[in-house]
Amino acid sequence: MTSIAVVPGSFDPVTLGHLDVIRRAQGLFDQLHVVVVHNPDKKALLPIAQRVALIEKALGQAGITGVTVTSWSVGLLVDYCVEVGAKVLVKGVRSPADVSYETPMAIVNRKLADIETVFLMPDPAHGHVSSSLVRQVARLGGDISPYVPQVVKDFIDTNGLPD
Question: Which CATH number among 3.40.640.10, 3.30.70.660, 3.40.50.2020, 3.40.50.620 corresponds to the domain 4-158?
Fold first, then answer.
């Protein structure tokens, strides 16, 4: 039986922490889908298609192959999981606050569609990094290169951040 997992997120933008979770999750499952999802509680900075493209390029730069990258904005994330045959969601958690936020969703996803959630702790080098922190540092003119793949830094340096 093939094990299929989904790594969902807003990835606005993708960070080195995200890539770390994706790389490690790929080693645990036969197939991995990275899914950019619309989060109605967050105001997105980059359009979904741009986030998908940046993830694909970042994975290529990092030598991570064989990962499906897509988006899902209609219906529940578990609907996507059922559609592709995934039985597991993989979530990177950096802090107790992340666990508190993710746990109710994990329980609901299990009840809705028998989808399990696996929490992966970050590499300590990336445990403090979030997309919102990257956006703030970039907006204030700071160096984001320690936190994001080169393709993201280049994109932001070239295009700036939308207001």
Answer: 3.40.50.620
